[in-house]
Amino acid sequence: MDARQLEYFLAIVEHGGFSKAAAALHVAQPSLSQAMANLEADLGLALFHRVGRGVVLSEAGRELLEPSRRALRDLTAVRDTAAALTGLHGGTVEVATMPSPGIEPLTTLVHRFAGLHPSVTVSTHAAFTPDEVIALVRGGSCELGLLGAAAPVHPAGLDVLHVEDQPFVVVAMPGGAFEDDVPIRPDGLAGEKLIASRTGSLMRHIVDDITAGGAGTEIVTVVDHRTSILPLVLTGVGVAVLPSSWTRLARRCGAVVAPIEPTAHLHVAMVSLPAHLTPGARAFRALTESLARRRTRDAGSADAGSADA
Questions:
Q1: Rounded (10°) CA dihedral 26, 24, 21, 62
Q2: Contact 271/135 with Cβ under 8 angstroms?
């Protein structure tokens, strides 16, 4: 068994077949097939079942998927550790992220990381629920995961770093019923047209609570892609309830952002496996930990200032 065979095995799984994997790897398909036949012979197991002209992963293949990813990541870590003796040079940090944490704190983290380690690439993978982020990290597809949840998460077998709590805000067009940075109560949305995400998110739960209060409030648009929300607000379709991570971007686009008081909070955390982190991933996590400490201090200072006032 060698690293090349494991790389080929994972490529077949990720690309959904031998021909697509061969094209992605820039190798001849017969060479790929022979490498897999040799690997299966070495292991004494069938990794794939041939179905018609395609293949599906066998039970043994599924069991070996995560160890194979870890083995390749460990080999990468050996190379990266050697390079780290003189600093981080090259490599990629794989980060799974949900939409709102993907706005912030990811933007700040990538900006600072790129300044410190310009030769290391940060590659982000989209996930839409905390469970999806956790699965990507547990399965070895990503070393790190940024998620936002209604309550603090405690997934078994993963390290959890609390990053920040994001309150929810109203984002609206200027010149309307809301003033920038002027707090409003949930009942202050009475009669408004709301843009919402699909059922199941904390954002949607807050919107549903608001509409349940009646007073003419209604959902006019439901979107799957959070990136659609801000353009819809700016064209006057309605107002949106979003985590405060969207504040800076919304204001730069000319929108009004008003805090909701009282409101729920999105608990943002970074998850990772206790071991098997490459030097690049360790550096990214250390940077996240530093940012988390700073934001905790800033939040404490703001609370103290409010109490003094």
A1: 130
A2: no
Phi/psi region, residue 194 (left: phi>0; alpha: psi -120 to 50; beta: rest), is: beta
The pLDDT of residue 86: 47
Query: Residues 139-191: pLDDT tens digits?
Result: 888 999 999 998 999 999 999 999 999 999 999 999 888 999 999 988 888 88
Q: What is the pLDDT of residue 81?
A: 63
Please state the φ and ψ torsions of residue 126, each to the nearest 5 degrees.
Answer: -75, 135
Cα 288–Cα 290–Cα 291 angle in degrees, nearest 5 = 65
Take residue 266 and report the two structure tokens written for it. 């999105």
Continuous segment of H or E residues that includes residue 190: none
Chain centre to alpha carbon of residue 272 = 12
What are the tokens at 106? 């990811």
Give the residue ranges of DSSP H helices in the chain: 3-15, 18-25, 29-43, 59-84, 99-103, 106-116, 130-138, 202-212, 229-234, 247-252, 279-308
Do the Cβ atoms of 92 and 120 come closer than 8 Å? yes
Query: pLDDT under 70 in the chain at which residues?
Result: 1, 79-89, 213-215, 299-309
Nearest to 169 by CA among 197, 203, 201, 200: 203
Is residue 204 within 8 A of residue 173, CB to CB? The reply is no
User: Residue 75: its pLDDT value, please?
Assistant: 79
Residue type (1 letter), 303: D
pTM of the model: 0.68
pLDDT at 302: 57
